[in-house]
Specification:
This protein has 126 residues and is mostly beta strands. 8% of the residues lie in helices and 52% in strands. It has one helix and seven strands; from the N terminus they run βαββββββ. It has a five-stranded antiparallel beta sheet, with no helix packed on it. It has a two-stranded antiparallel ribbon with strand order 2-3. The radius of gyration is 16 Å and the shape is elongated.
């Protein structure tokens, strides 16, 4: 369907700031800081996502992460955010639109993490 791409540089400072925000302990592997498992949720801030209307409210429906290897400081991630499904359903307070997204991140061509996220918009308009 729709997709956008972004290259992200993972710094120790970025990992530290995110860890502090979610009150997660800093962890290391072989001396390198590793990102908390949920850090890819903030990668969305780096994308211009044309299919989501910026001033409409969205509810976070679900999210899951599938890691091949941890995200470490110093990694350069090539990330692709794709809209993989749009569903319309009836809800108690009107129509619901469910937007399923897949975020795929690689480093040097090797898979690092895939995250699936469902955002829900309430209302009958498209």
């Amino acid at each position: 369907m729709s997709q956008v791409q972004q290259r992200l540089y993972i710094t120790a400072q970025w990992i530290t700031q995110y860890s502090q925000c979610i009150e997660a302990p800093l962890q290391r592997i072989d001396g390198d800081l590793i990102a908390p498992a949920t850090m890819p949720i903030i990668f969305w801030q780096e994308f211009d996502i044309p299919w989501l209307e910026p001033y409409k409210p969205y509810i976070h429906g679900s999210q899951n992460f599938s890691y091949v290897t941890p995200i470490r400081e110093g990694m350069v991630l090539d990330c692709e955010l794709a809209l993989s499904k749009v569903e319309r359903k009836a809800g108690r307070q009107g129509g619901l639109t469910l937007f399923t997204h897949t975020l795929t991140c690689t480093c040097d061509g090797e898979s690092v993490v895939t995250a699936e996220t469902v955002l829900i918009r309430v209302g009958n308009e498209h």
